[in-house]
Design a protein that fits this description.
By secondary structure, this protein is mainly alpha-helical. The protein contains four helices and two strands. A two-stranded parallel sheet has the order 1-2. This is Chromosome segregation protein SMC.
């Protein structure tokens, strides 16, 4: 809404694919916290985070490590480099 009271609407289809992915991720993670799912579902799996830069991924992982007892994050090697060494890494199976 503008200062003159004009309202504008848009649809999610006008966002790029990566913008939609990040928006969906934010809503999902916010719901996980708001509804206290970490108390009943102590496991979180994050994958396909390539739309977010390495530093923000590291911040996200560090933040959610305080909530999810079991946090598994699938990352590209260059994104994983931004994480602290305190996190256990699995590089091959």
């Amino acid at each position: 809404t503008t200062e003159n009271g004009a309202a504008y609407e848009d649809t999610i289809e006008h966002l790029s694919e990566s913008e939609r992915e990040v928006t969906g991720l934010i809503f999902a993670l916010a719901g996980y916290l708001v509804h206290d799912l970490h108390e009943t579902v102590p496991f979180m799996l994050l994958d396909s985070l390539e739309a977010i830069d390495s530093d923000r991924i590291a911040d996200l992982v560090e933040y959610f490590a305080d909530y999810a007892d079991f946090l598994v994050v699938a990352l590209l090697p260059e994104d994983a480099q931004a994480l602290d060494e305190e996190f256990t890494r699995v590089t091959s199976i």
